[in-house]
């Protein structure tokens, strides 16, 4: 497929000023050229060989914030990758919205599965995106969605139509766990005072059915290692007579779920907050085709916690999965050994009111308990995050609902996200601020996978929707304060 031009009809410009006009073809292509420039920077935060590109990306963001109309924009170094902060103060008496995003991206591997260079952006038409989609690493997660906010802000400034204060907080470590961001927001609480946080790093149901993510699952992540013999042993000489760490670790992992796919860690479900009837009814408004779901990921059947639907299992129920397992000989050919040790990475997705630190401790204690005396067990825990939920009665949600309705012509559905953005719960804990998640990507956009892409329709609709959000949020906030 060849690179396509950008249809001018994608982005009808909305303005309250009759004198405000755009050459839409020129402006749309200018935006895409700018986003392409952003996407060419290989800002892979997980790999140290890309450190200079990560820093280059931070500088790019700073420049973009200044050019879009921020009064100030600064790069703040951390012990890891830098954080960029920009501000625009209209009036200290007006509400302040803080936009959070990240400029770092996932590694592009495996490169052989990409149809084009992951850091040479190209526009191609697809069945889902006949208007065209931008293919590149970071196109949807999160550079494209972050750029929506920069351009919406820029247009409001140009129109003289921004009615609230705006702070941008853009980091370079989201894809490696936002390692230094909580410390940063703790140290800069005064500068980060705001009434609401706005994030576009999630998806909506479809191009014709927008949705607002009202909750995210929390995350706990560990690595467990089981050791037996001091060295690898000949399986013919020792087989059947000595501990085999892979055999035993596999058995232990098998004990983490029962026959109904319930997680067996003692007390695991004690703190789970049941979904209220209204929220459950809302998530079931989503049209879900189980056959299509299975076909889309190449599975023959669904498996999961008994008595719950697939939608609930992947968004509002906790889960536990092995993310990787290794030990012994795994190269080509055969080598008959009993390995000296075996390891596995295990993650849990958590729901309100489960706390990631407690759940991590409970998992560690359970694994230690079920480890036979013949083995030595060691466990490393990684940074996690608590679940998050926001009420549909919150002013920010109401403003987002009105904005999507205006732009797409249909009411958005309130959904729960199965993934995690750990910093969202930290924002609430440290800054006392709620977050509204206005995603414009699609589940089919292949984030974290080869051939990641972002539809141009979604990109330009996102700009319109964010502009409407600011208008509605300011009006609702001022009305609320006057009561």
Provide a quick synopsis of the model:
The protein is α+β, with helices and mostly antiparallel strands and 483 residues long. The protein is built from 13 helices and 18 strands.
Could you characterize what this model shows?
The chain has helices at residues 24-39, 51-68, 143-158, 181-187, 235-238, 245-254, 277-283, 290-297, 310-313, 356-369, 395-408, 422-431, 456-482; strands at 72-76, 83-88, 96-102, 122-124, 133-135, 165-171, 196-199, 211-216, 218-227, 233-234, 319-327, 337-338, 341-350, 376-385, 388-389, 413-417, 435-437, 453-455. The protein has 13 helices and 18 strands. Helix 4 (181-187) packs parallel to helix 12 (422-431). The chain is globular and about 80 Å long. The strands form five sheets. A six-stranded mixed β-sheet has the order 1-2-6-3-7-17, with helices on both faces. Strands 11-13-9-14 form a four-stranded antiparallel β-sheet. The protein is an alpha+beta fold and 483 residues long. Mean pLDDT is 93; it is low at 1-22.
Task: List the topology elements.
Blueprint: H1 24-39, H2 51-68, E1 72-76, E2 83-88, E3 96-102, E4 122-124, E5 133-135, H3 143-158, E6 165-171, H4 181-187, E7 196-199, E8 211-216, E9 218-227, E10 233-234, H5 235-238, H6 245-254, H7 277-283, H8 290-297, H9 310-313, E11 319-327, E12 337-338, E13 341-350, H10 356-369, E14 376-385, E15 388-389, H11 395-408, E16 413-417, H12 422-431, E17 435-437, E18 453-455, H13 456-482
Parallel strand pairs: 3-6, 3-7, 7-17, 8-16
Antiparallel strand pairs: 1-2, 2-6, 4-5, 5-18, 8-15, 9-13, 9-14, 10-12, 11-13
Helix pairs in contact: 1-3, 2-3, 3-13, 4-12, 11-13
């Amino acid at each position: 497929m060849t690179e396509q031009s950008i249809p001018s009809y994608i982005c009808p410009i909305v303005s309250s000023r009759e004198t405000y006009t755009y050459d839409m073809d020129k402006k749309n292509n200018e935006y895409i050229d700018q986003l392409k420039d952003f996407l060419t920077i290989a800002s892979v935060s997980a790999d140290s060989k890309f450190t200079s590109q990560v820093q280059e990306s931070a500088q790019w963001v700073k420049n973009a914030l200044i050019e879009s109309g921020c009064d100030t924009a600064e790069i703040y170094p951390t012990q890891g990758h830098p954080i960029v902060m920009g501000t625009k103060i209209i009036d200290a008496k007006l509400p302040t919205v803080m936009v959070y995003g990240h400029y770092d991206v996932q590694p592009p591997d495996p490169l052989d599965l990409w149809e084009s260079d992951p850091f040479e952006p190209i526009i191609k038409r697809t069945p889902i995106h006949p208007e065209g989609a931008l293919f590149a690493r970071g196109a949807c997660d999160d550079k494209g969605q972050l750029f929506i906010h920069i351009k919406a802000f820029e247009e409001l400034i140009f129109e003289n139509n921004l009615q609230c204060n705006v702070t941008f907080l853009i980091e370079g470590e989201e894809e490696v766990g936002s390692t230094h961001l909580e410390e940063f927001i703790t140290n800069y609480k005064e500068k980060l005072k705001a009434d609401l946080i706005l994030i576009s790093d999630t998806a909506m149901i479809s191009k014709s059915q927008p949705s607002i993510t009202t909750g995210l699952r929390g995350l706990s992540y560990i690595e467990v290692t089981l050791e037996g013999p001091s060295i690898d042993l000949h399986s013919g000489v020792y087989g059947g007579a000595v501990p085999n760490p892979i055999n035993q670790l596999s058995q232990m992992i098998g004990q983490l779920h029962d026959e109904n796919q319930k997680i067996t860690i003692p007390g695991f479900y004690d703190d789970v907050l049941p979904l209220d009837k209204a929220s459950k009814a809302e998530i079931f408004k989503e049209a879900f085709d189980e056959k299509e779901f299975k076909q889309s990921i190449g599975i023959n059947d669904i498996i999961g916690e008994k008595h719950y639907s697939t939608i609930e299992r992947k968004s509002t129920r906790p889960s536990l999965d092995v993310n990787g397992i290794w030990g012994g000989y795994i190269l080509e050919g055969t080598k008959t050994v009993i390995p000296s040790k075996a390891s596995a990475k295990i993650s849990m997705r958590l729901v309100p009111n489960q706390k990631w630190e407690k759940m991590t401790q409970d998992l560690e204690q359970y694994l230690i308990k079920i480890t036979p005396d013949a083995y030595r067990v060691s466990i490393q825990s990684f940074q996690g995050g608590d679940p998050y939920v926001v009420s549909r009665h919150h002013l920010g949600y109401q403003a987002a609902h009105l904005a999507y309705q205006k732009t797409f012509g249909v009411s958005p559905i309130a959904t729960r996200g199965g993934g995690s953005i750990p910093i969202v719960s930290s924002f609430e804990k440290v800054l006392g601020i709620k977050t509204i998640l206005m995603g414009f990507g699609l589940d089919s956009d292949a984030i974290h996978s080869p051939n990641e892409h972002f539809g141009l329709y979604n990109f330009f609709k996102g700009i319109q929707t964010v502009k409407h959000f600011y208008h509605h949020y300011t009006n609702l906030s001022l009305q609320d304060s006057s009561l």
